[in-house]
Every structure is written in C-alpha cells, then in structure tokens.
Amino acid sequence: MKRRDFLKTVGLSGLGVWGACVWPSIPEAHAQRTRLSVFLDERLGKINRNIYGQFTEHLGGCVYDAMWVSPDSRVPNINGLRKDTIQALKDIRTPIIRWPGGCFADLYHWCDGVGPREKRPKRWNWGGVGESNAFGTDEFLEYCRLCGAQPYLCLNVGSGTVKEAAEWMEYCNGKLPTEITESRAVNAHAEPYSVRYWAVGNEVYGCGGKFDAEDYARQYAHYVNFLSPLGQDDPVEFIACGNTQGEWNQKFLEALLKLPYGKIGDVQGLSIHHYFQRGPGVNFTDADYYDLLADVSTLESYIQKTISLIDHYTQGGPHIGIVLDEWGMWHADTGTGAMVLRQSNTLRDAVLAAVVLNSLNQFGTAVSMANIAQTFNVLQSMAFTRGPEFVLTPTYYTFDLYQPHMDAMGLKVEIDGPTFKSEAQGMEVTRNYLSASASLKESEQKLCLTLVNQHLTDPLEVEIELHGTGSGGMRGALLRELTSPSVHDENTVDKPTVISRPVEKRVSVKMAKFVLVIPAHSVQALRLEL
Ligand code: AHR
C-alpha cells in the first residue's frame, strides 16, 4: 500500500495528520521516512530518576500561593501546604525538589524560617522579595514528604557562614540530643529528616558571591570540611557550583586539588545551569521555534565538555555527577512585580522540555540530577495558580509522559531521517526532526520510547526497529500523545484545558519493526511489553 493510499484508508491526509497511527505492516519506504533503531543490548546506564527533578525558589508566586497558602486559607491545604499542587507533583512521581534558591539562597538564613510562625522575622531578599518566612525548612521538608520527593537544599555561601550551614545540616539530619535537634523536635519533627543532597552555594560566580573559581574552591573545601562529619550516619552528597562559561569548572577542580588535603572525592556533583530563550512566550516566529530547538545542541555541548573534564580529573575514581539544577525556558516577556518571572507555557515549551529530557536520558549516568526552573508560576512551570484556581501546563504533561524512564536502563538509539538546520551559539547546526530516547525496565520487560516530531507542519513517518535480545515480538503496546493544532496553544487560568492530559490508548504493535506516523509538533510516549 502506498503511503497516500494508506492515509486515505484511515481517513488522514498527508499533511495535518491528527493523532499518531501505527501502520499494520511495513509499507513501501517513503523518501522522507525516518528510521529509528533501538538497541536492547547496548546499555547506556540506569537513568537517574533525579533528572526529572524540580526547582522551587522564593520568587514571585512559586512558594507563596502555590506551595504555601496558610492553614486558614480557603484553598484546600494540609497544615498550610497546598493540596492540589502536592497531588500534581505526586502524580508525576517527582523525585526531588531543590530549595530555597537560586539567588534567594545566598541571602537566606534558615533560622528565620523555623519555630513559631508568628515570631518569624520578615526579611528583604533578592529581587525585592518581601519574605515572611512562613514557609521554612520544616514546611518544605513536609511538602516534599507529602509529594514523595527527596529534598535538595542549597546552602548560603554568599552571605552565610560555615557555622550556620553546619547547624542547618544538624537541624535536618542530627541524631544526637543537642539544643538544635531538640528544637527540631519541639518545632515539628522528632526524627531526623536525613536530607541527602546539599548544594554548596548557587551561582557563586554571580549573585551567589562573585567569587572566582580559586576562591570558591577554598570556600567549598571549608564547607565540606565541617559538614562532612555530620553526614557520617546518613549518606550526604555535596554539589559544587560549576559554570559552563569560560574555564570555571577546570579552574575550580584544579584549585581544589591543590589545597592541602583537597580531594576530588569531596565533590559528588557539579552543578551547571542552562536557560533557553528565543523570542516571546506565545507570539514567537517560526524561526524562533527552530532556533530554540537547535539550541539543545548548546546544552549538549556544555554537558559533553563537563563530562570530559570530570573524566580527566576523576580518572576512573569516585563518580562526579553533572547536576543541571536549573534549566528551562526563560521567555523575553516574563512578568514583573508580584508576578515576577511568571510566563506563558505553550506547546512549544512542552516540545522543548521533551527534547531536552530525551537528550538527558541519552547521557546515561553522567547526568545525575536536573531540576526544571521553576515548579509553579515562575519561568517554565508545571502549573499556574491564581487564588484557588489551578492549571496544569503543557510542560507538566511532558513530565507525565516521561515518567516510565525513571530508574530504567537507558538504551542506545540511532536516528536516520530528515533534518533541519538552524543556528546555535552563532554556528549552523543540523538536527533530526525526530528526537527520541529509549529505556528498558528489565524486571517488567517493558520498553519505553519517547519520540518528538519537531517539524512545525509535517507529520513524520518513523520506522522503528528493535535490535537485540528480547526484540522478537510484542505482547502489547500503549501510546500517549501530547499535541495541539498550534505550537502557540497554551493553557492559562482562564483557558485551562486548551491542551489536556494525554490519555493512554492501546495500539497494535506485534513485530520488532513497525511504522508510527507522528503528527507535527507532537510528543509521543510508547510503552511496549516485550
Ligand atoms: O531561576 C531564577 C534565577 O536564575 C535563579 O535565582 C538564579 O540561580 C538564576 O540565575
């Protein structure tokens, strides 16, 4: 059957295919067909669930209104913690949440945010935030517990002290009966919280203190020296602040190793940040759309460079994971004032997130954590709130579709098909219209493929072929699809369901080779039972 004839039989025209479809047999190859090979025996390492993490900062409406509404609010809450946002993060199995910043962290003093709420001081913070301190350590850790997520705390290096940091860690993790752990018991929690992940500062080269790499290495060693002994009962991981610009990462690691007793084993993670921006949030041009997606190459090149550097310094020794603890879209027209950094969230944002997550999946164990900025009401958020109203964004649905990759074994994929050219970092880059990643849950014999057709107008015919052990045949297949008539479509508080939660449908895939026709600007999650 010819492609045109087949599309006719299923009631679709070549352009404007609406909804993915699986071809029952392999039809004659179309010139523009993409071939996707998935290699079941070529393992990239376990995909760290923490790359599906979130970043929350006391900024705009991220914490107040979205995470915290206070116990007497008319918005349903659990002791002040907002129920609908908790449920949303639980539903996508959010693995980890970074807090309290961002730049906010380097002016934040944790002591201000514990104890009786009415006695907590009001403070000024970065970005003119009037901070009530109503939401502090105990509230954040309880919020994480309710979501089923691990906390990731960012220490104040810029304006704090080592003593303050050590006491914060003792408050969270201490087991001995001391004044600090007893205050924790009185305030909220008798048992230690066992917080594992600690960032030693945020953007210390900028808002976090304007250090140079050598000075920061000394600071880092100083913090780790006094905090490590506190982490002996429960494992603790320290994340150093890296920077993709210039030779910061190299200078930092070099300087650390030159210090008396400086050792690479003191660094469990190296953080980098990457924000994307191409035009306004909704009224972007077609060129903005493609340039944006091509810019994923920039992030990939930063990750690749950081991997090479880490390999050089670790020499096969203790692993240092790359922690992309801030990433996402930062539109040219974000909000100001009380709505600071609030921005629209269109299908384009969701497509970008899907391409980035496919890329992170492909880096195997090299990337150990990633936290999209920021969970609610700020930058590329998962949901918007306005008083009691609550709206999930298209980006949330991407995270929803990608859930099965968490903790699964990343598999090598190869793509051969039509490409687009665009510009990133002043250079022309060529990328496949198809973006894909694959993972296997061996215990369940389930394969997850996430596919993105980045083409603005045309569907993609994708011939998928599984190679290797277990590729013989399929017991079943389930497909979820995220798309909308236009990439400019968005969910807003006034129109919350322009793009709705993708539903799962059963599709007929039996053989190791089949064709999937994917609509333009869509994200697909295919789950195959081997
Ligand atoms: O996410 C907003 C800000 O961007 C963060 O506070 C800072 O770390 C980054 O520059």
Tell me what you see in this structure:
- With 530 residues, the chain is α/β, with parallel strands linked by helices.
- It has 2 domains: 3-45 and 409-529, Golgi alpha-mannosidase II (Immunoglobulin-like), CATH 2.60.40; 49-405, Alpha-Beta Barrel (TIM Barrel).
- Helix content is 24%, strand content 28%.
- The chain has helices at 3-9, 83-91, 137-147, 162-173, 179-187, 213-227, 248-258, 286-294, 296-314, 347-362, 394-402; strands at residues 21-23, 34-46, 53-55, 77-78, 81-82, 96-99, 123-125, 129-131, 150-154, 197-199, 237-241, 269-276, 321-329, 367-373, 383-386, 389-392, 409-416, 419-424, 427-432, 434-441, 446-453, 460-467, 476-482, 504-506, 513-518, 522-529.
- The strands form 6 sheets. It has a 10-stranded mixed β-sheet with strand order 1-25-22-2-17-20-21-26-23-24, with helices on one face. It has an 8-stranded parallel barrel with strand order 3-6-9-10-11-12-13-14.
- Helix 2 crosses helix 3.
- The longest helix has 19 residues, at 296-314.
- The radius of gyration is 24 Å and the shape is globular.
- Alpha-L-arabinofuranose (AHR) binds at residues 57, 101-103, 202-203, 326, 373-374, 379.
